[in-house]
Amino acid sequence: MSEAEQASGRRLLRGLAYVSEGNKNPYAHPVEGVVALLDANAAKVVEVLDSGVIPVSKAPGDFDDKSNPPSRPGLKPLVISQPEGPSFSLDGHHVRWQNWDFRFTLHPREGPVLYRVSYQDGKRLRPVLYRASLSEMLVPYGDPDSNWSFRNAFDEGEYGIGRMAGPIEPLRDAPANAVFVDADFADDLGKPYKVEKAMALFERDGGVLWKHLDVFVANQNQSQRARELVLTFIATISNYDYQLSWVFRQDGTIAAECGLTGIMLAKGVKAKSAADLHADHANHHAHLVAPGVVAPHHQHFFNFRLDFDVDGTANRLVEHNVRSAPAGKDNPSRTRCSWRRRSSRRRRRRSGT
After folding, report:
1. CA 201 from chain center: how many Å?
2. Cα–chain-centroid distance for residue 243?
3. 3-state per-residue secondary structure call for 146-192
C-alpha cells in the first residue's frame, strides 16, 4: 500500500488468516504470508498480499484444562477470609479505606479511572489526584517482514480497552474476599449493555509495612503487617489479556500495576526447532514457541495520565539523581555523593469535571 493510499482518508483494515478447524486456539495455526487489505466503508478487498507459502503448523496449541493435564501435584488449600467483612466502604463508586477517599469508573476507552483521590489528614481531607487513568498503550512489533511491519497496535485508542473488559471470575481472577462492580456501556449503535463483575475491589496482604528489632531492649520487636487495597479489571484484546490495577497502601503511596497474560501473537515459519530458527537469519527477531510457530519480539508501552492535585493545582515535579562526587580536596576519601535536581512547575485550569 502506497503512502498516498494510506493518506486517502479511507478506513482501511488488514485481515489476517488462521486455521480454526479442529482446535480451540487458532493463534497456534497462522496462515502466514497472506494478508487482505480491506476498505471498511466500501466493504471491498483493496488488495491481497501473498509473500509465499509457509506450511501451517500441526502442533496442538490449546490451553484448556482437558488439553493440558496437570504436570505436577496440586497445592493444598490457601484460605483468604475476612469474617467481619471488608475494611473499606463502597457507596456506588465512592470508596473509603484507611484515610483514602476516592471515586472510580470504568471508561469505555481508558479502562479504570480514578477521580478526586484524597487523604484524610486529621480533620482535613487533603486532595492528591484530580484524575488518573491509562492514556494509551502502544504495542510495536519488531519484525521487518512486509506482512508484519505494519503491526503496531494502539490497544486503547484503536480498540477501547475499557469496552474489552470481561467478567472477573471469582476465586480465579480475584480472591475470595473480592467485591465486584458491574459496568454499563453503549455499543457501536448506541444500545446500552452491562458487563457483570467488570471490576473487583479487595484487600490483600502487603508484606511488612515497618519493622525494627531493638537489640538494646531484650530484642523487643516492633513490627506491623501491611494491608493494600486493590481496584482491578481485566481486558481481552484478541490474543492478549491485560490486567490493570490501582493499588492504595497504608504508607500513603499509590501504585499502578500492569499484568500481561494470554497468547503472544504467532507467526508461521518453516523452522521446526531452535537450531532451525538459528539458521534462519530472516527470523532472528522472534523466538520459537512450537514447531513451525514463532512469537516475534515486541514491546508494550503503558502511558498514564496523572492529573495531580496535591493540596491544590500549583504542583511541582522534582527529580533527584544521585551520583559520586569527583575526588579532590573536598572529597579526599571519595565517599561524598552529590545530586542534581530537575524541577518543573505546573498549574492547571480546570475546564470542568
Report:
1. 17
2. 5
3. CCCCCCEEECCCCCCCCCCECCCCECCCECCCCEEEEEEEECCCCCE
Give the 3-state secondary structure of residue 281: helix
CATH 3.10.450.40-classified regions of the chain: 3-50
Alpha carbon distance 287, 294 (integer Å): 5
Q: The C-alpha cell of 154 is what?
A: 494502539
Domain with CATH 2.70.98.20 in the chain: 89-346
Predicted TM-score (pTM) of this structure: 0.88
CATH number attached to the domain at 3-50:
3.10.450.40
Give the pLDDT confidence of 60-100 residue by residue, as tens digits. Answer: 888 887 887 777 888 999 999 999 999 999 999 999 999 99
User: Which residues are identified as catalytic?
Assistant: 155, 240
CA 264 – CA 28 distance, rounded (Å): 10
* Contact yes or no for 129/139 (Cβ under 8 A): no
Domain 89-346: CATH class, spelled out: mainly beta
The rounded distance, in Å, linking the Cα atoms of 113 and 246 is: 9
DSSP per residue over 41-74, as a string?
A: TTTEEEEEEE----PPP-S----STTTS--SSPP
User: In degrees to the nearest 10, what's the CA dihedral of 307, 310, 316, 318?
Assistant: -100
Using the structure block, give the residue that is written with the C-alpha cell 504508607.
Answer: 251
Q: What tens digit of pLDDT does each residue of 286-325 get?
A: 999 999 999 999 999 999 999 999 999 988 888 888 888 8
